[in-house]
Amino acid sequence: MVRSAPILLGVLIIAGCQSGSSDKLQTTAPRQANAIEGSYRLKATPDEAVEAGGVENLPQLIIASDHWRIIAGDTESSGTWQYSAGKLDLTDKESGETTSFRADATATELEEIADDPIIFAKFGVTEPTKPAK
Length: 133
What we know:
Layout: H1 5-19, H2 30-36, E1 38-42, H3 46-51, E2 60-63, E3 68-72, E4 75-84, E5 87-92, E6 98-103, E7 109-112, E8 119-122
Antiparallel strand pairs: 1-2, 1-8, 2-3, 3-4, 4-5, 5-6, 6-7, 7-8
């Protein structure tokens, strides 16, 4: 079932309390950090997308060069981000809480580092097709 916007944001903030760290991370090479930038949607099954009223209504995560935003319905959060060694930290500007995600080199999916993780998938990215044999 798709989480409602307030619940989703609450989950991110609570998870941030558990996964946050006071240590500042150094951002890795610009090329790797640039791979993170873009628009993501909450990964959902087809049934969950229908329940949400369509894919366009799923929570959206936007990562720009100097900030991030999560838009879930009428609710929005934003802050700063740092990426290092496959780990993306999102720090909320209002609460100061940090939520961490795992990201591979291509950053097609961001998986929250938590017991019950949420996953954001990058817009416009399709699985590579396998050549016919």
